[in-house]
Amino acid sequence: MSAAETDIAAEVSASIKRWQKRRGSMVMMLHAIQERSGYVPREYALELARQTGNPLARIYEVLTFYNYFKLKSPGKVVVSVCTGTACHLKGASELVASFSESLKIAEGETDEAGDFHLQSVRCVGCCGLAPAVVINGKTYGKLKTTQVSGIVARWREKLAEEEEHPEKKGAPVHV
Ligand code: FES
């Protein structure tokens, strides 16, 4: 199993543990995945099917029933700023403003090139790290507005690298 697959398995497992005893647990699990990634990637749906023993078709039935779920990434890089209570208290709205300024898009928008999408999401499950931001599945905890432009610059570099060397797609970002 690759590191990325291990991360997906661990995330899906945590979401199952959190929601499995609740009514409508499948919707809640899918909701948690979308909150982190900005959409529900197929690899996550596959892993959810594997771990819950549900057929993949059943999961896609749920996904397509609700308009809320997105099956495609709204941008190559999805920046999800957590605005749940803990993060809100630690300055999440300043982070949204900072990312918005750095990316030159408003919250909820994708830039013209389709590179970056900025969204605010509810609790991403790591309140101890508030304020938290998740970018393409990578969590940034205790983030300060002064770090935002450096992070955006690094992700821009990564997109440029991937354009030049497509084999590097999905490689971890070090920032
Ligand atoms: S409120 Fe932001 S991680 Fe929980």
Structure description:
The structure is a single chain. The chain has 175 residues and is of the alpha+beta class. It has two domains: 3-65; 77-168, Glutaredoxin (3-Layer(aba) Sandwich), CATH 3.40.30. 50% of the residues lie in helices and 10% in strands. The protein has seven helices and four strands, in the order ααααβααβββα. It has helices at residues 3-19, 25-37, 42-52, 56-65, 85-89, 92-103, 145-164; strands at 77-82, 116-121, 133-135, 138-140. It has a four-stranded mixed sheet with strand order 2-1-3-4, with helices on both faces. Helix 1 (3-19) crosses helix 3 (42-52) and helix 6 (92-103) packs across helix 7. The longest helix has 20 residues, at 145-164. The radius of gyration is 16 Å and the shape is globular. Bound molecules: FE2/S2 (inorganic) cluster. FE2/S2 (inorganic) cluster binds at residues 82, 84-87, 123-124, 126-127, 130, 132. The site of FE2/S2 (inorganic) cluster has 11 residues, from helix 5.
